[in-house]
Amino acid sequence: MAHPAPHPAILCSFADADSIVESLAAFVVQAQKESIDKKGRFTVALSGGSLPKMLRGLIGNPAVKWDKWHVFYVDERVVPLDHPDSNHFSCTNHLFSKVAIPQNQIHALDTTLLDDLEELADAYEKELIREFAQKDAARFPVFDLVLLGMGPDGHTASLFPGHDLLAEDDRWIAFLDDSPKPPPKRITFTFPVLNHAARVVFVAAGKEKVDTLRQVLDDPEAGLPASRVRPVFPGQLYWFVDDAASAAVQYPRTPFKL
Ligand SMILES: O=C(O)[C@H](O)[C@@H](O)[C@H](O)[C@H](O)COP(=O)(O)O
């Protein structure tokens, strides 16, 4: 049987980065509600970069049921958890230290394995398997929500242009020691994991992203990593961007609504 085609991406463009914050929070709360109503929990994957700060609209928001959140990192730099390069450190600083989320529901790297990349990636994959596989026996985990950023080179997670990992179609978690952006050692979700999520949201703001965003949305055949995020049916991809980033994009915008 043929698989239904993926839903087209929904592009929402806001006046500026600050204006993204409130709508992003409303979107996350709605996704959380639908997930909890369905299965009593909310599985979320977070990125680093500016994303943790962009989630500030969730802080102090009584609609957020933090005790139902189960958080993983889309990618992580292989550094101690209190290192400024750590995505866990950034998410803790900007978000988790300010809300009542159970610590054991935040899945960080096993720092006893920092010297062995392969073991580290395997251990993180096992954490994901513990969370997902026994429940629905799926070939790939189905996150309720994956939140991504995009680098000026079009990378997302730690999936960089031209890298061998773009072709990884089996593992859930991969590792690399040659990231073109420091630090070189990282682990990352693979495309099949990103592309099996129920909802994937890219958040991108600023005029430095203008050329890349145009290419990703208007010329996806060029194959930049961010263009390869196309959740399989019935997953839905969203882009929450600001007008500076989307200034050159032809792809149709959709007014934000829940
Ligand atoms: O080292 C990295 O891989 C980057 O820091 C990455 O994690 C970041 O999410 C993107 O580059 C987007 O960054 P901004 O969200 O800050 O634009």
UniProtKB/TrEMBL annotation:
Keywords: Hydrolase
Keyword presence, Hydrolase: yes
Pathway: Carbohydrate degradation; pentose phosphate pathway; D-ribulose 5-phosphate from D-glucose 6-phosphate (oxidative stage): step 2/3
Reactions accelerated catalytically: 6-phospho-D-glucono-1,5-lactone + H2O = 6-phospho-D-gluconate + H(+)
EC number from the UniProt entry: 3.1.1.31
Family as reported in the entry's similarity comment: Belongs to the glucosamine/galactosamine-6-phosphate isomerase family. 6-phosphogluconolactonase subfamily.
Root EC class: hydrolase
Single annotated GO MF: 6-phosphogluconolactonase activity
Alphabetized Pfam families for the sequence: Glucosamine_iso
GO biological process annotation, one example: carbohydrate metabolic process
The name this protein goes by in its record: 6-phosphogluconolactonase
Glucosamine/galactosamine-6-phosphate isomerase domain segment(s): 16-239
Function: Hydrolysis of 6-phosphogluconolactone to 6-phosphogluconate.
InterPro entries found in the cross-reference section: 6-phosphogluconolactonase_DevB, 6PGL, Glc/Gal-6P_isomerase, NagB/RpiA_transferase-like
Record SUPFAM superfamilies: NagB/RpiA/CoA transferase-like
Top-level taxon: Eukaryota
Species for this entry: Mycena pura
